[in-house]
Write a structure and sequence with these properties.
With 298 residues, the chain is of the alpha/beta class. 43% of the residues lie in helices and 14% in strands. A five-stranded parallel sheet has the order 7-6-5-8-9. The protein is globular and about 55 Å long. The structure holds phosphoric acid mono(formamide)ester and norvaline. Phosphoric acid mono(formamide)ester binds next to helix 2.
Length: 298
C-alpha cells in the first residue's frame, strides 16, 4: 500500500520517532556524499504558495540522496488552466516517484493522494504542516533529549503549524499548552485526536509558566492577509517577549518555523537570543525530510 504523509498522525508513534532519530543520524553523516538510496528517483513539488525552507530542503534533500526534485509552481502548470487535480495526480505519479504539495486545501491534498500511485507529502496546507514538526521534534531531541513527559507552550494563532504541534504532542508523549484567542483556536478534530495531550488556555503567561519549550508562528498565515489588521490587534497579548521567556525559565528553548516577524509574534531579543534554536530548527527541515523520503521511498 502506498503511504502518504498528509498529516503527522498518518505516522504511528514508533514511525515518527524512527524518522526523527534517523534525521539526526543523517545529519551526523553530512560529509557522506556516497549514500544514494534514491538514485534516479524524482520528486514533483507542487507549490501554490511561497516557500524558502520547504522548497530548498526538499530539493537539496533529494539531490543528497541521489535523486532529483522538480519545482512546479502550480500557476505555471496546467493546474493553473483548470486541469483537474485528479488528472494531474495520475500523470505525475506515472513519471515521478513522490509528490510534495503546498496549497490551501487539505481536502485537495487528500484527493491528490487518492489518485496517486506514489507517496504524497503535505508541504503545508491550511490545516497541517507535518514536515515542520518532524524537524521541530528532531531539534527538541537534539537540544534537550527525549521530549516525552515534557511541556511545550504554543502562543498565538491556532494555525496549521499549531495543529501539527498538537498531533506531535500525542505521538511523542509530551504535553502541549495552547494559548490563543477564542477566534483563532486550533482545529477541533485535531484537539480530539490529541485528547489529554493538549490543553487550551486563555492566558499566555499561564501557558508559558515553567514550560520546557515556547513556540509561536506568524499571526498572518499565507492567504489570511486581508485579516492582518484585526489579527495584529487580537493577537498582541500573545507576543513572545523576554518576560514571557523568563516565565518559562532559563532552560526553555524557543522555536519558530519561520518566516518570523520581529516585533509582532516574537521580539528580536527572544528570536535572536540565547534560548532560540530557530536556525537549527530550519536546518533540520533538510535532515528530517531526507529521513522521511527514505522512509516513504525505500
Ligand atoms: N517553515 C516553512 O515551511 O518555511 P517556508 O515557507 O519558507 O517553506
Ligand atoms: N502558518 C504559516 C506557516 C508558514 C511556513 C503559513 O501558513 O503561512
Amino acid at each position: 500500500m502506498t503511504r502518504h504523509l498528509l498529516k503527522l498522525s498518518d505516522l504511528s508513534p514508533a514511525e515518527a520517532r524512527r524518522i526523527v532519530e534517523r534525521g539526526t543520524e543523517l545529519k551526523s553523516r553530512r560529509e557522506d556524499h556516497q549514500y544514494r538510496p534514491l538514485l534516479g528517483r524524482s520528486l514533483a513539488m507542487l507549490f501554490a504558495k511561497s516557500s524558502t525552507r520547504t522548497r530548498v530542503s526538499f530539493e537539496v534533500g533529494m539531490a543528497r540522496l541521489g535523486g532529483h526534485a522538480l519545482m512546479l509552481a502550480t500557476a505555471q502548470t496546467q493546474l493553473g488552466r483548470e486541469e483537474p487535480l485528479a488528472d494531474t495526480a495520475r500523470v505525475l505519479s506515472r513519471m515521478c516517484d513522490a509528490i510534495m504539495v503546498r496549497n490551501d486545501s487539505q481536502a485537495d491534498q487528500e484527493e491528490l493522494a487518492r489518485c496517486s500511485r506514489v507517496p504524497v507529502i503535505n508541504g503545508l496546507s491550511e490545516l497541517h504542516h507535518p514536515c515542520q514538526l518532524l524537524a521541530d521534534v528532531q531539534t527538541w531531541f537534539e537540544h534537550r533529549g527525549d521530549p516525552k513527559g515534557k511541556i511545550a507552550a504554543w502562543l498565538g494563532d491556532g494555525n496549521n503549524v499549531c495543529n501539527s504541534w498538537i498531533e506531535a504532542a500525542r505521538l511523542f508523549g509530551f504535553h502541549l499548552r495552547v494559548a490563543s484567542p477564542h477566534q483563532y483556536r486550533p482545529e477541533p478534530a485535531v484537539l480530539e485526536f490529541a485528547g489529554k495531550s493538549v490543553s487550551l488556555l486563555d492566558d499566555p503567561g499561564a501557558a508559558a509558566a515553567g514550560a520546557d519549550l515556547l513556540v509561536t508562528d506568524t499571526w498572518t498565515s499565507m492567504g489570511r492577509e486581508a485579516e492582518r489588521a484585526e489579527r495584529m490587534q487580537v493577537l498582541a497579548p500573545f507576543q513572545v517577549d523576554a518576560r514571557m521567556m523568563a516565565t518559562a525559565g532559563p532552560d526553555a528553548v524557543f522555536m519558530h518555523c519561520l518566516p518570523a516577524h520581529r516585533g509582532e509574534e516574537v521580539t528580536a531579543e527572544v528570536i535572536d537570543g540565547p534560548q532560540s534554536v530557530v536556525w537549527d530548527e530550519a536546518e533540520n527541515r533538510l535532515w528530517a525530510q531526507m529521513a522521511l523520503l527514505e522512509f516513504l521511498l525505500t
